[in-house]
Amino acid sequence: MRKYLIFIFIVLAVAGCKKKNKAVTSTIPGKPALTTPAQNSVCISGTIISATESQVLFTWNPAVNTDSYDLVLKNLLTYTSTTINTIDTKINATLLRNTPYEWYISAKQNSSSTTTQSDGWKFYNSGAGIVSYPPFPADIMYPAFGQVITPSNGKIELYWAGNSVGNNIASYTVCLGTTSNPPAIKNGLTESQLKDVAVTANTTYYWRIITFDADGNYTDSGLFQFKIQ
């Protein structure tokens, strides 16, 4: 009887270990690493389809625990996004020429609803006869969209990040106000920040950044909003 009880104990212990090991097995997809088109590049390797469109190859490294991928493409002029699903680590997509884009990969696992997103990379899909390229729209860093801010002595700071293919950004214009068409409050900024911005409590603000390069090209970050407590 004693030997039988010892046997049952061992069986239960082994089963418990198996369940424990199974419980810690991760099904969360790994983070994909992008390869091409490269960050902040002029894409010249696409296949021209027409005067307005070309086909571009996107590639990335495989991610662990992943069954499929979503390629998400964002047109940085219209701010519209397109999603393409694939089980491969490369895919062709038809894009507008002469247009800046941002892209990222979302890794998916069939047995989990959790997805893992790669970094976002920007590139410019080139067009015929282009000798200079507009800067990429500025990335709004702070305040983020919808963020609630507690000011210090009635003032806040604004931060953003700018990039361009030719590394020739000349200046920024900051537009800020309480309507969805905020006026320019500062022109000719060469730094990607604006300090000591006076704000009013219990107020929603709208803001955008206009980026200018040395060739006279410019882009709009798109409209963002935040609230002051």
Topology:
Elements: H1 2-24, E1 33-36, E2 41-43, E3 47-48, E4 53-61, E5 68-75, E6 81-86, E7 90-96, E8 99-109, E9 112-117, E10 121-125, E11 136-142, E12 147-149, E13 155-163, E14 169-177, E15 184-189, E16 193-198, E17 203-213, E18 218-220, E19 224-228
Parallel strand pairs: 2-10, 12-19
Antiparallel strand pairs: 1-4, 3-4, 4-7, 5-6, 5-8, 8-9, 8-10, 11-13, 13-16, 14-15, 14-17, 17-18, 17-19
Organism: Mucilaginibacter antarcticus
Protein name: Fibronectin type-III domain-containing protein
Ranges where pLDDT stays below 50 over 5 or more residues in a row are 3-14, 17-24
Helix coverage percent: 10-25%
Major sheet attributes:
6 strands, mixed
Number of helices: 1
Distance between the termini: 72 Å
Strand content: over 45%
Look at the helices and sheets and give the structural class.
mainly beta
CATH fold annotation of the largest domain: Immunoglobulin-like
Q: What is the second-level CATH architecture of the largest domain?
A: Sandwich
What's the CATH H-level superfamily name of the largest domain? Immunoglobulins
The whole-number mean of residue pLDDT values reads: 89
Number of domains: 2
CATH class of the largest domain: Mainly Beta
Summarize the helix and strand pattern as letters.
HEEEEEEEEEEEEEEEEEEE
What radius of gyration results from the CA coordinates? 25 Å
Principal-axes geometry comes out as flat
Number of strands: 19
Protein name: Fibronectin type-III domain-containing protein
Organism: Mucilaginibacter antarcticus
